[in-house]
Specification:
CATH architecture of the largest domain: Alpha-Beta Barrel
CATH class of the largest domain: Alpha Beta
Number of domains: 2
CATH topology of the largest domain: TIM Barrel
Distance between the termini: 14 Å
Length: 371
């Protein structure tokens, strides 16, 4: 089986509500979809959700890189030779992990379909039966965030991820408001998205949050400040998660060597796809570090890919892949059993793509190779 043709679609996924985090407000989510066709007629889908603030990629740049560099490089290759595919892509261009993730995911989908097995079987087989889903609270006024959390509790959610990262004192009020509303038995995870900038500001905030009993604090300092993570971890009892600080194996080695985090957030868009994500999980497991598979707010395609990785790896103990729940219209049909998700046993990513919705959401498209 060989990769014969790659179509690329630049789309925008409409959100129910704007998604607000420390460095941006998203009225919708820009994404790049890859449709890969093999010489045997098998079709696989992949996705790239670029983030200028995390991977240094834009949707426009990602589209161009796939069209002019990555797609021409992989045409004619066997999509099942994952190690070779990544070597070829890495030789073709440095970095651009979200663009590479789109190719990687499409290959996993196509190979799974060709063999009649779910993609998680390509990564070691299924380990977890289900995962609880965490509801993500965008940055808002303390009372509004508390009200949303209370409403989601009634829907069955037992854990919340709070987006913060503004003025630390204001964020403390947000966190205290939510904890006061949901009680002590609900899990609260706090994601600062680098917003507190440094260890000093973080440690000041954490002194006021000791009574809130957080599950963990995620990425309070700037991405490249791994030494800042070390200081926060050494001076706070709250478990610390690295997110933007972890992009690939280079950062994982430093985090392990410096014992800079208790947990790491693996995102396919940061590391280059499902195959590299599995490698990062193995590195973390050897170091005794728990993992989460996180989201860049992908459609059913990217979210399903993340779930297949998470379900296959013992050291991945939580997931935050809620993109499809936030969209008013999606191109795929990934199914949630809120507040849980249980993957099906369909081949590949296990989802169907609505060609009509894909066409409706497409702003521009291109193709490489022959059909």
């Amino acid at each position: 089986m060989k990769i014969q043709h790659i179509e690329i679609f630049a789309i925008r996924l409409p959100l129910h509500e704007p998604f607000v985090i420390s460095y941006a407000t998203y009225p919708d989510m820009p994404s790049v979809i890859v449709k890969m066709t093999t010489d045997t007629g098998v079709v696989g889908y992949g996705e790239a959700v670029a983030d200028e603030h995390v991977t240094g990629e834009s949707r426009e740049g990602t589209f161009a890189v796939i069209e002019h560099t990555l797609a021409p490089a992989v045409i004619g290759l066997d999509p099942a030779e994952f190690e070779r595919l990544h070597t070829v892509m890495d030789k073709a261009i440095y970095g651009v992990p979200a663009a590479k993730a789109a190719i990687d995911i499409a290959c996993m989908d196509a190979v799974g379909k060709s063999l009649g097995i779910p993609a998680y079987q390509l990564l070691g087989g299924r380990y977890h039966d289900s995962f609880p889903i965490t509801h993500v609270l965008s940055i808002g006024e303390p009372q509004a965030m508390a009200d949303e959390a209370a409403q989601m509790m009634e829907a069955g959610y037992r854990s919340f991820k709070m987006k913060v990262g503004t003025v630390p004192a204001d964020d403390v009020k947000r966190i205290q408001a939510v904890r006061g509303r949901v009680g002590d038995d609900i899990a609260i995870r706090v994601d600062v998205n680098q917003g507190w900038k440094n260890s000093a500001a973080t440690l000041q905030a954490m002194k006021n949050l000791e009574a809130c009993q957080l599950d963990w604090l995620e990425q309070p300092v700037l991405a490249d400040d791994i030494d800042g993570l070390v200081e926060v971890k050494s001076k706070s009892a709250t478990p610390l998660m690295a997110d933007e600080s972890l992009r690939g194996t280079t950062q994982m080695r430093e985090i392990i060597a410096k014992r800079a985090a208790d947990k790491v957030n693996i995102k396919l868009m940061k590391c280059g796809g499902m195959y590299p994500a599995m490698k990062l999980a193995h590195m973390a497991e050897m170091a005794g570090i728990d993992c989460q598979v996180g989201s860049m707010v992908e459609s059913s395609i990217g979210s399903a890919a993340g779930f297949h990785v998470a379900f296959s790896q013992k050291t991945i103990t939580s997931v935050e892949l809620t993109g499809p729940l936030k969209f008013s219209k999606d191109i795929g049909d990934l199914q949630y059993d809120v507040p849980f998700i249980r993957l099906n046993e369909k081949p590949g990513l296990g989802i169907s793509i609505d060609a009509q919705v894909l066409a409706e959401l497409t702003e521009y498209r291109s193709g490489v190779g022959s059909l």
